[in-house]
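ok trying again, last paste got cut off:
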Amino acid sequence: MAIDIAIKQKGLFKKKITLDMIKSLLRDQMVLGERDSNSAYVFYELKSEDIDNVNIVVQNPNHYGRGFIIYTKGKELCTSLNVPTTNQDVNDFFDFVQKACTHFKVDSFTMYEERQIKVNDLESQRQETAAWNIDYLSNQVKELHENGLLFIVFGVNNPIYIPASILEQWSKETPENLEAIFSSYLHLKQSEDLYYMKPTFYQKNQDILGAYTLTETVDSIVAKQAFVPPITSGLPDGIEPNIWNLGNVRFPDNAEPTIDYIPYNTFLEKIKDLNLEEYDQKHWILRNPSKNFLERLLE
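nice, full thing came through this time. structure:
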């Protein structure tokens, strides 16, 4: 679920919306990124100035929550906040809306494509959204816990699969306490510099291949079992790989990187006794995979 807002320019001569313009409407510490169709919702820092047809992800490095999205629709500036989220994300989102309205000299914005909100009422709308979000988070946690389901949160950096044991604890919290716990949890999970091993997919003859990549010395979030990520895998519905591999990337002395592939299940078998730290319900953390370690995987 998301809260969608559009800021529509007035007058005949509307401004072209550029990346520099968007940056000027955000606080200096904000980092801009994007997600591609095969990204598994993993954050990549924005490199291109061309923002047409790009969903820009806004990341606050002082608070790794869920962030928010900015995109253009012609000369309209649009923004979207996924919920449930954190209070800081709500504040960052409405701060951007306020600055965008001031920049375009408009006195209102559109919410959910039809509801007109006066800029003078923006602060009350922010407070209303923050209160509603806290209740929505609490209700969703309780519902997921009661039904024995995972809580999949698409964080600003990467997805997090929150296990049932944590949902059980959270379901006992007051809504206000839960928001603070949820906020701290997302920030902690995303603060460390870890490579999220997302799968990529290929077709080779009649086979559909899924491949992860593990790189020498790179601390990585590794899947406990190979799986197709929800929503953004890039695969047609109902299509799953029949072959899963791990790309093993090493850096020989004074040479180009080399990559060799092994079956993903072989990789899992070889690391099963390492007692790896758990990242979330579906992932472990594999730290500093050395060249020797990667070469042993190939034996």
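cool. The chain has two domains: 1-191, 195-297. The mean pLDDT is 93.
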